[in-house]
Amino acid sequence: MPEQDWFRVVTLPGRSDFSSLNQWLSENNVTHRFTLEGDGQILWVAKQELVEPAKIAASNWMKERHGVDGTIGVARRLKPSIEFNQPFAPVTLTLLFFSFLGFALVGLGYEYASLFFYYDKVPAFTEFTNEWYNLREGQYWRAITPIFLHFGAIHIIFNALWLWFLGTRIESVFGSVALLVLVLVTGLASNTAQAIVSFPIGFGGMSGVVYALFSYVWLVGKFTKHPAFELPPALFPIMVIFMLVSWLGAFDWLAGGEVADTAHTVGFASGLICAGITLFVISQSNNKPEEKSEEQSQDQE
User: Fold this and answer.
1) Which of the residues are catalytic?
2) Which fold has domain 7-86?
3) Which strands sit side by side in the sheet containing 40-45, from one edge to the other?
4) Does residue 78 contact residue 23 with C-beta atoms inside 8 Å?
5) Could you tell me the residue ranges of all domains in the chain?
6) Could you tell me which of 54, 84, 89 has the C-alpha nearest to residue 71?
7) What is the pLDDT of residue 44?
8) Which 8-state DSSP code applies to residue 76?
9) In this structure, are residues 260 and 266 in contact, taking their beta carbons and an 8 Å threshold?
10) Does pTM top 0.85 for this prediction?
C-alpha cells in the first residue's frame, strides 16, 4: 500500500485550540493533519489542490482568534452548535449512560447486577474455585462490565464528572475509536488486577479507567503541549497523593466500603503505558511528512 503524500500549508501557534479550524476542514472534506515543529504546529493536507483552501481557512482562523471572543468567535462563525467549543463525544456519552445504568442496577439489588460482576456464583471448595471461574464458563463480558457498576451517589458522580472531563478531551483529539480502545485496554487491566486481589468479594466502578485517562492526558499533554490536554499544574500531584493515601484506607468510609485501590493504581500505570505508545506513534508519523517535504524542496531546487 503506497505511503500517503502530505502537503504543507502553514505553521500555526502550538498552544492554540484548533477545534473550530479542525471542524471546518473536516466538514468541507479537507483531509488534513497537524504535526509538531518546535513551538508551532504545522497544518498538512492530503492533496495539492487543498493547500490554498486550507491556507485561506487558517488565515481566517488566525484573524478571528485574536478578536474579543477568541476561538469561540470562530466557532460561532463556522457552526453555531459548537458555540462553547464542546465537541460531540458519542463514546463518552455511551460510557456515561452505561455507568448510570450500572448504578441503577446495583441500587435495585445484587440479583439485578450479578450478571455484570467479574465473578458470581463460584462453586466453593473445588479446583475451579477462583476469580477465573465465570470467564472459563464463556462469560467474557464480565472482564469489562464491572467498570459500569457503581455503589452510591458519590461514587457515580465523582466518576461521571471525571469521565466527561477527560473522555471528551481524548475523543476530540484522537477520535471515538481511540478512546474506546483506551477504555477497553485500561478497563481490562484494572479489572483483572482488582479481581486477583479481591476474590471472592465483588467490586466495580469506573475509577480505574478514570485514573488511566488522567495519566494518559497528563503525559500526552506534557510532551505534545496540545491545548485540549492542558491541566492545572497542581492537579497531577494531588491525584497521585489521593491515590497513595487511599491505600491507607482513608477514603473507605466515604465510599461506604473498601476502595478498589489496586484498580486505581493499575489503571494509572496502564494509562501511562498507553500514553507512551501514543507519543511514540506521533513521533514516528511526524517525521514522515517532514522528510517528504525536504525531499520535495530538494527536487524543486
Assistant:
1) 207, 264
2) Ribosomal Protein S8; Chain: A, domain 1 (3.30.1370)
3) 7-13, 40-45, 32-37
4) yes
5) 7-86, 90-282
6) 84
7) 84
8) H
9) no
10) no
